Amino acid sequence: MADHEESAMEKITEKLRGDDSSSSSSSDSDDVNTSPASSLKSKVFRLFGREKPVHKVLGGGKPADVFLWRNKKISAGVLGGATAIWCLFELVEYHLLTLVCHGFILALAVLFLWSNASTFMKKSPPQIPEVHIPKEPVVQLATALTIEINRAFGVLREIALGRDLKQFICVIAGLWILSFLGSCCSFLTLFYIAFVLLHTVPVLYEKYEDQVDAFAEKAMIEIKRQYVVFDAKVLCKIPKGPLKAKKV
């Protein structure tokens, strides 16, 4: 009888342990099921669907450091050099070929006089270093440009096929704005404005990204609402012909 009672007590304790483990597993499963929901709720709207930091979006490395003013001396020097070039060509109305020729004349004259003056001073002439362009950066730049140009051609092809009307309207509007800006200022001025924006907008956005993203979320909701109204009143009323199947 004692053995029977002990075996019964062992069964009861095992059952209670099984219930506790099942309840703990169910609570764990509930936590697992609720964790994606909580992560979705905690997901914040980012401009253009950005999931990476601004530094990674700009490509990372030294160019991103320059755009985000991680080294203020280098960024200020680059921006100051671009401003000086823009002032020379736009305000002073200097020409590129003239600037290059005057630069070579000045450099050669200084080196020539320095080399000859060192012989009269009984000093060894200065060693002029050999200048050559490395191959790898040029190949990398050409490869990157080729990839981006091919990607742009692919996007233009998709737009020309008429598969996305919204994208077509956005591209046409963007090109029209660029054409209007091109008629108002020269290409160098437009390039300089874009260069200045690259050195100011990313660093300001990184500093105030929460406020900007909240405002952009409201703006995107309003734009989508207006597009739905435009689609219902205008785009849906445009007659479309039947699509014919192409023979392969």
What does this structure look like?
The protein is mostly helical. Among the domains are: 53-94 and 187-238, no CATH class; 134-184. The protein has nine helices and no strands. α4 (72-91) runs antiparallel to α8 (187-207). The N and C termini lie far apart (87 Å).
SSE topology sketch:
Elements: H1 2-42, H2 54-57, H3 61-67, H4 72-91, H5 96-120, H6 135-160, H7 165-184, H8 187-207, H9 209-233
Helix pairs in contact: 4-8
Shape annotation: elongated
Order of helices and strands: HHHHHHHHH
For the record, give the distance between the C-alpha atoms at the N and C termini, rounded to a whole number: 87 Å
Low-confidence stretches: 1-6, 19-42, 243-248
Mean pLDDT: 76
Largest sheet: none
Helix content: over 70%
Number of helices: 9
How many strand units? Answer: 0
Radius of gyration: 33 Å
Which range does the strand content fall in? under 5%
Structural class, from helix and strand content? mainly alpha
